[in-house]
Design a protein that fits this description.
The protein is of the alpha/beta class. The protein has 13 helices and 15 strands. The strands form three sheets. Strands 1, 3, 4, 7, 8, 9, 11, 12, 13, 14 and 15 form an eleven-stranded mixed β-sheet that branches. The protein has a two-stranded antiparallel ribbon with strand order 2-10. The chain has a two-stranded antiparallel sheet with strand order 5-6. The chain is globular.
Length: 418
């Protein structure tokens, strides 16, 4: 669903898309549905449902692909360097939302303002990787793995799935056409929409279900390494019918992100047992034409982001009380604007938290101050894993030590327990 590269200088994003699709199972009689296995899946039930644990929140991770400019989304207008370094593209203080005298929200985030005012939307600034990494592909992988120094391609979300009650059942879902963030051995699904989660050939042209019977005979007792994955994928497709029967409860914008979030909402409301979801939004690589409040990529993307998230939260209804959204990007942008109304690759960024358990209506993090030089970055003062660890420990029963091995998180204070 993403089209992540905006300029020729970042063509590596296209390569990243292709590479992150490796390691997933395709073409085994499942059309439009990816059953990702990483390495062999063992003892995995075909059912998605899992008994509720002590903390049974749902976590949705939304990645802004291409390195979003956090200094535009959550503006540090109280730092005088911000406006000086961006004489053309700085967001005027008078236009900011939810200003606390130092920070304020981009005006295109207005659809989310009611959640800020209600205390369920917050921002954590100056977050990111512990060391700069300005390669899109490498940074995406590092953020998703969250285990510096490891040679294994196992992501923190996959470790999270493995530490939840009912580990081995299908509790993880990646929605979108291009990427999946849930790399590793724990079973998870990837599909672009619920309507695509079907078995190829199981349609109106096969009223006697010959296709399904054939697949069951072929794989039912097979010892082939892929056999268990095929069986689980078939069971998952059947189990997803409960979500397919759930209509959208609100009107969504006509964007890829909104369609993906609508799919997530239907799956959550279908109560099929999925606990972890990932979604992407592309086109954040704004070396050129980031623009102003009147035109440009930031205005467009911020509007699409906020409108889709607001519709999603409204659509969830009662399920919103157990759903937490984390918004992050692989790295931020430079402090100083370039000659093309854009910004080059930087380091620190902002993370957004929305929904259940969020101590909203506040800005979190330690502000390092900005410098007005060509190569100046926003310095990272809060490791992004500290924010994620707080979400994990307050919204799920998983252990942060397991999900983020070797890492000691700092207290952020942006989340409450269930």
């Amino acid at each position: 669903m993403t089209s992540p590269h905006r300029s020729a200088c970042c063509s590596e994003l296209a390569d990243a898309t292709a590479l992150t699709r490796r390691g997933v199972l395709r073409g085994l009689g499942v059309a439009g549905l990816t059953y990702a296995v990483g390495s062999a899946v063992v003892q995995a039930s075909p059912a998605l449902a899992v008994a509720a644990g002590e903390r049974d929140g749902t976590v949705v991770v939304l990645s802004l692909r291409g390195a979003a400019d956090g200094l535009s989304l959550v503006v540090p207008h109280g730092d005088p360097v911000y406006a000086a370094a961006r004489p053309r593209i700085a967001v005027p203080t008078s236009s900011l939302l939810a200003s606390d005298g130092f920070f304020g929200l981009h005006p295109e985030l207005e659809p989310l303002l009611p959640y800020w005012q209600a205390g369920s939307f917050a921002a954590v600034h100056a977050t990111g990787l512990p060391a700069p990494n300005r390669s899109h592909f490498s940074a995406m992988e590092e953020v998703e793995d969250a285990n510096p120094g490891s040679t294994e391609r196992i992501g923190w979300l996959n470790r999270l799935l493995g530490d939840l009650p009912g580990s081995g059942t299908l509790q993880g879902v990646a929605v979108g056409d291009e990427t999946t963030q849930i790399f590793g051995p724990e079973a998870h699904l990837s599909f672009s929409s619920l309507d695509d989660a079907v078995i190829a050939g199981d349609d109106e042209w096969d009223p006697t279900d010959d296709r399904l019977r054939s697949l069951r005979r072929m794989w039912g007792r097979s010892k082939h390494p892929l056999a268990s994955s095929v069986r689980h994928a078939m069971g998952a497709v059947a189990n997803l019918q409960a979500a397919k029967d759930v209509p959208a409860g609100t009107a969504y914008p006509d964007t890829d992100l909104a369609r993906a979030l609508s799919t997530v909402a239907r799956t959550i409301k279908g109560d099929v047992g999925a606990r972890v979801f990932t979604v992407d939004q592309g086109d954040w690589d704004m070396h050129t034409d980031l623009g102003t409040l009147s035109w440009g990529g930031m205005r467009t993307n911020a509007r699409r982001l906020s409108a889709a998230l607001a519709a999603f939260m409204d659509d969830l209804g009662d399920a919103a009380s157990r759903t937490t959204v984390v918004v992050l990007s692989e790295f931020g942008r430079r402090v100083k604007e370039n000659a093309n109304y854009g910004l080059d690759h930087g380091w620190g960024n902002v993370m957004l938290l929305l929904g259940a358990g969020v101590r909203g209506g506040s800005y979190y993090g330690t502000w390092p101050g900005l410098a007005n030089t060509t190569d100046a970055d926003l310095t990272v003062t809060t490791d992004y894993r500290s924010v994620l660890a707080e979400v994990v420990t307050t919204r799920t029963s998983a252990s942060a030590a397991t999900v983020f091995p070797g890492f000691t998180p700092e207290t952020v204070g942006a989340m409450t327990s269930l």
